[in-house]
């Protein structure tokens, strides 16, 4: 027995992108488009009115995609939501999934990938393209840094030598080297410079 088509509401503030996705969905027998929106308020209203199987929305539309996700899931905890965006930063991926999204797709994704993602989500699975899954994995590894390693990373990112780090942290130079090796491994980088760059990008450094 064939599965019923997956019903969708899509939300994006770019008219051409919205029209293009709508046209592709309407040409796919496995999908049915119930409604469209151009901002967070519209996305929430359309979800409430139409109750689609999946809400497909832009992360950075007016009103904020994250806000729309939070509002929908506050009333409908089982709502299936997929983020469709041009942004692939690991922080964006993390924030989107943490807000309750079940999938994350880039706008240049092939339509076959979009359909595959929707099917995965309907089967109560999360979906991430491989490159985004790698970014999220790297972030999770980074979050495993110990308090001491984060402290050493801050000193390292300030350009300090091992001897200076050892003096300021009150530990031996050998211990500093040990921690730095662990940091490079957990961040999946090959050098101190890369570690400092990743730390800055991921917000791992303290702010004063």
Uncertain runs: none
Helix-strand sequence:
EHEHEHEHEHHHHHH
**Inertia-based shape:** elongated
What percent of residues adopt helix (DSSP H or I)? 40-55%
With helices defined by DSSP (H or I, 4 residues minimum), what is the helix count?
A: 10
Estimated structural class: alpha/beta
| Distance, first to last CA | 61 Å
Beta content comes to 5-15%
Q: Give the CATH architecture of the largest domain.
A: 3-Layer(aba) Sandwich
Largest sheet: 5 strands, parallel
- Can you list the strand order of the major beta sheet? 2-1-3-4-5
Q: How many domains in all?
A: 2
CATH superfamily of the largest domain: Response regulator
Number of strands: 5
The average pLDDT score comes to 86
Looking at the structure, the CATH topology of the largest domain is Rossmann fold
CATH structural class of the largest domain = Alpha Beta
Rg, nearest Å: 21 Å
